[in-house]
Amino acid sequence: MDKEERVSLTAWVEDIIGDFVRSPENSLKDKDNEPAWERPLVGFSRGDDPLYVEIKALIGPFYLEPIDVFRASFPDLRVSRDQLTVIAWVLPQTKATKADNRKSKQFPSERWARSRKFGEEFNVKLRSHVVAMLKKAGYEAVAPQLSPLWGMNASERYGMASSWSERHAAYISGLGTFGLCDGLITPAGKAVRLGSVVARINIPATRRPYQNRNEYCLYYTEGGCGKCIDRCPTEAITKEGHDKGKCRIYIEDVTADYIKEHFGLDIYGCGLCQTRVPCESRIPARKEKGAG
């Protein structure tokens, strides 16, 4: 396959994702049928990128490399790491959803809760759609988060961790770096959701325009931000980082009840640390100390 063919495949996959995001499936399911997500960002990484091996070594043996989930999904196929591509995407929250959540101080707004429920239901459909379109064209594919192998496990180093991380796939695929609160800061900001698919297809990797995992975070680069610390209603974010256990208890035991009582939705969520911060909608400029 020559360079022109690989570039053509890149555009084809980007169009598959973009077209689906523009479809009626992308909805908050409110009275106005507002879209849940704005225009997506798409990135690619090779299945033999050494960062996948490094992350598995850090998190634990239960963590899935692209080759692990692909071989488990297609046990009759002989495939090597360099034959695989990870397709990752970023779904940015809408301006209206961010504006609503920006006003919140303790609980998520209704639009944010709807994006967490119906927006993620759409994201699940998007994963399945990408897999189906690839398979239809003759490329075997699997969405790791929809695989029976996906689950939560205890990492000796990090506590509870999933066996596949959409954030890390996006990071390796050139789409962003991590902030103090563990959210991924992308060119569309941190108020996003993520997805990915692993496929046996030859697409050039997206260049990573950063050198380290925290390069876009003002706190790590300048030490003078920490706005997400102030935004967290349960003190799960400190200068030491993100307490996943404290965060999970709050969203599952507190926000879930609030959302059900006030919005009639069976879902949990928060997102306060993703809004009213300098990295809400973009990569923040250096020397920027606050959010508007």
Give the helices and strands, then pairings.
Layout: H1 3-21, E1 41-46, H2 50-59, H3 66-73, E2 85-92, H4 95-103, H5 110-136, E3 141-142, E4 152-155, E5 159-162, H6 166-172, E6 177-178, E7 184-185, E8 192-199, H7 218-222, H8 227-231, E9 237-238, E10 241-242, H9 244-263
Helix pairs in contact: 1-5, 4-5
Report on this structure.
The protein has a domain at 3-94 and 111-213. The longest helix has 27 residues, at 110-136. The protein is of the alpha+beta class and 292 residues long. β4 and β5 form a beta hairpin. The chain is built from 9 helices and 10 strands. It is globular, with a radius of gyration of 19 Å. The protein has helices at 3-21, 50-59, 66-73, 95-103, 110-136, 166-172, 218-222, 227-231, 244-263, and strands at 41-46, 85-92, 141-142, 152-155, 159-162, 177-178, 184-185, 192-199, 237-238, 241-242. α4 packs antiparallel against α5 (110-136). The protein has a 4-stranded antiparallel β-sheet with strand order 1-2-8-3, with helices on both faces.
Q: Could you name the key traits of this structure?
A:
alpha+beta, two-stranded antiparallel ribbon, 10 strands, four-stranded antiparallel β-sheet
- Based on CA atoms alone, the radius of gyration comes out at 19 Å
> Average pLDDT value?
95
| Molecular shape | globular
Distance between the termini: 48 Å
Major β-sheet profile? 4 strands, antiparallel
Helix content: 25-40%
Which structural class should the secondary elements be placed in? alpha+beta
